[in-house]
Write a structure and sequence with these properties.
The protein is mainly alpha-helical and about 325 residues long. Helix content is about 45%, strand content about 5%. The chain folds into two domains: about 140 residues, no CATH class; about 160 residues, Intergrase catalytic core (hpI Integrase, Chain A, Orthogonal Bundle). The strands form two sheets. It has a three-stranded antiparallel β-sheet with strand order 3-4-5. A two-stranded parallel sheet has the order 1-2.
């Protein structure tokens, strides 16, 4: 895969088009193609294009529709689930099922479109995961994408943070760990966060700008010391993750994780799961947790129930308690 040689080379991402377009063009990026001089695809867009070409050549779906469906799916898998650009992970059938379920629950996908989306993605799975490899590849079980990190796995974050080969990679690792495990932030929220959104008045509180409102999340005490050192030199408008002055790339978190040192490759989604399950285990009241986690419906917490202690006779007895509202 080629890389950009200068800042003048256009780089086309998912959903972006060059200035030159043609209404009747069949190419997924307007009149330009990867063979044209000066054309560059981002790694994510290249991955989507290759998958869409393959699906369109081996099915009745045209490349434009396949690109839209696969592009939305890959964006979700990267930014929400924290998966790397690896076909064996991206097109695992159980990951596809998780996407469809999540898209329906969040009303991003109409039920009338479910069959088409599942067919295109499953076709991609069939093409990119050939039958002769099926026995060698263990599908990722759905719970594995939701599973919180164990105590030992959480302990592994400390050496991972400090073991990065450059200062900027170390700063990224610290920001991702503290905001993911310490506040349960999503990858996109970590990517957009600036110093002005952080208050430190005896305890760190992160203000997360949502679409309609602002929500405040206190950081777990374990991660506060490292995070304080990280933000100490920053100006109010500086980014917390990565370089202080940078362009916000949508896949900045997943690209960093892939480039980070060591075999340990953290998942921003599992970090968020760890934080949510920890708050549930600590019996944080549900309205407070929903607000801090940026969740709109109680049903969203159902996925995390398998990771909580199961009911006992003692917990069952608490149902008899009278509570004044």
């Amino acid at each position: 895969m080629r890389t950009a040689k200068s800042s003048t080379v256009p780089r086309i991402g998912i959903g972006e088009r060059p200035n030159s377009t043609s209404r009747g063009s069949a190419a997924p990026f307007g009149n330009m193609t990867p063979n044209d001089p000066g054309f560059e695809l981002t790694p994510t867009a290249a991955f989507v294009r290759e998958a869409a070409l393959l699906v369109s050549e081996q099915s009745t779906y045209n490349i434009s529709r396949a690109t839209i469906i696969i592009g939305r799916y890959v964006a979700w898998a990267e930014h929400t689930r924290g998966l790397p650009l690896a076909a064996r992970l991206m097109f695992d059938p159980q990951v596809i099922d998780l996407y469809v379920r999540d898209a329906i629950e969040s009303k991003r996908l109409a039920k009338s479109s479910v069959a088409e989306y599942r067919a295109v993605l499953r076709r991609g799975s069939e093409m990119l995961l050939p039958r002769d490899l099926a026995n060698q590849i263990q599908p990722i079980p759905a719970p594995a994408l939701l599973a919180p990190y164990s105590a030992d796995e959480v302990d592994a974050f400390q050496p991972w943070m400090l073991g990065q080969r450059t200062n900027i990679l170390q700063r990224k690792a610290i920001a991702l760990t503290c905001l993911g495990l310490g506040c349960g932030l999503r990858a996109g929220e970590i990517n957009r966060l600036r110093r002005v959104h952080v208050i430190d008045d005896g305890g760190i509180i992160v203000t997360v700008p949502d679409a309609d409102t602002l929500r405040e999340v206190p950081m777990s005490r374990r991660w506060e010391p490292a995070f304080r050192r990280l933000i100490e030199p920053l100006a109010p408008d500086d980014h917390v993750f990565g370089a202080a002055h940078r362009t916000e790339k949508a896949n900045a978190i997943s690209e960093f994780v892939q480039d980070s040192n060591g075999l340990f490759k953290p998942s921003s989604y599992r970090m968020r799961s760890t934080w949510i399950v920890g708050r549930l285990a600590a019996q944080v009241d549900l309205p407070t947790l929903l607000q801090a986690a940026g969740l709109s419906r109680l049903e969203k917490l159902a996925d995390f129930l398998p990771y909580l202690p199961q009911p006992t006779e003692a917990t069952f007895a608490t149902l008899r308690s009278e509570v004044k509202l």
